[in-house]
Design goal:
With about 120 residues, the protein is mostly helical. It has one domain (about 10-120). The chain has helices at about 10-25, 50-60, 65-80, 90, 100-110, 115-120. Helix 3 (about 65-80) packs across helix 5 (about 100-110). The model has no long low-confidence stretch (mean pLDDT about 95).
Length: about 120
């Protein structure tokens, strides 16, 4: 498991570590869990993928019972790594529904947003 997210200036490394870590864990449908945090909500039409796994991740549905279980698992991982750190305030709003995708996108939009990057 990646190290805890403790400093805002460590965001790029943390984000890469999370994506790599989740790509190694399989979800309910045996799809790597990084599908939950993918940037595209819908697959790109006529996209060409380098590997079968890349395609499986890209086209995995972001709805349904399996997705909800996987999203909750991702939320649990994020919560473990972000509590008492700079990401806590962005993820806790998703605690009740255990929305890993929502938590990730909230953090991503903050740390990749113009206002944060301009301050850094």
């Amino acid at each position: 498991m990646p190290d805890k997210f403790k400093q805002p200036n460590q965001w790029k490394v943390f984000a890469e570590l999370i994506e790599t870590y989740l790509s190694q864990l399989k979800g309910s449908g045996r799809i790597p869990l990084n599908y939950v945090i993918q940037k595209q909500a819908m697959p790109i039409p006529n996209a060409v993928y380098a590997t079968d796994e890349e395609q499986i991740v890209a086209i995995a549905p972001l709805t349904g019972e399996q997705y909800n279980k996987d999203s909750a698992k991702v939320y649990g991982i994020l919560k473990q790594l972000c509590l008492k750190g700079p990401g806590q305030s962005y993820i806790l709003q998703f605690n009740r529904v255990k929305d890993g995708r929502g938590a990730w996108l909230a953090m991503y939009s903050h740390y990749e947003g113009d206002s944060f990057r301009n301050r850094s």
